[in-house]
Amino acid sequence: MVAIRADFDLSALQRAARAFGSQQMPFAEVLALTRLAKGVSAEETRAVIDTFDSPTPFTQKAFTVRPATKAAPVAYVSAKDIAAQYLAPYVFGGERSLGKKRAMLIPKATGTNQYGNLSRNKLKTLKGKPNVFVGTITSKGGQKIAGVWQRPASSARAGAANGKRKSARPVQSGLKLLIRFSDTTEAPKHLPFYERARAYVARYAPEEFRAALRQAMATSRGRR
Question: What is the pLDDT of residues 179-217, one digit of tens each?
Fold first, then answer.
């Protein structure tokens, strides 16, 4: 979570506020802080798109804004609970989160969606097939590989010649690893969440406060 406060060098704006009265200053402050937070949220979405390959819409829309109020002149930008859990290692470093999973699921020879991920019910569907099983196999080199495996394919070739049935001939191939189970690993990339937020605020804070102050002044005049 990043907190956006009015702790910038805005002395010129403050002098302008005093010139027409300070009653509207809290309104301008809340307006500017909230607009800045919304801008930071959009900037974080761009950071996600820049950092990850084909991020899902859920990840792109992970960020939420808590607006500032006159009682609490601080606006917050944060990631929603589920997204925050798996994005945190990319922000702070460390091992990737597995959530409720006991292992990472790495597709090897099975279809993925347009974002390169397994669909929600893919594992359940595979496990329901008679020629698929979940287990650990020891390779010829002695390596133990846990995952979802497809048993050797077998088919009977049959034909007819002159009205006579030919004997069946099985055709087999080896086990195929569809999904590998793996322990978690270090996050391979860095999501510049705080860096992008600070840069955005530093660049646009004066502009947003000037716009909010002009709106506050116009509102004040309109009430006279």
Answer: 999 999 999 999 999 999 999 999 999 899 889 888 887
pLDDT for the residue numbered 154: 65
Q: How many CB atoms lie within 10 A of CB 111?
A: 9
Residue where the block lists tokens 């006159």: 70
| Domain range annotation of the chain | 2-97+187-222, 104-182
- Give 133-169 as a 3 state SS string: EEEEEECCCCCEEEEEEECCCCCECCCEECCEECCCC
Paired tokens of 177 = 């690893």
Angstrom distances, CA of residue 171 to CA of 92, 149, 153: 52, 18, 7
Convert the pLDDT of each residue in 58-67 to its tens digit.
999 999 999 9
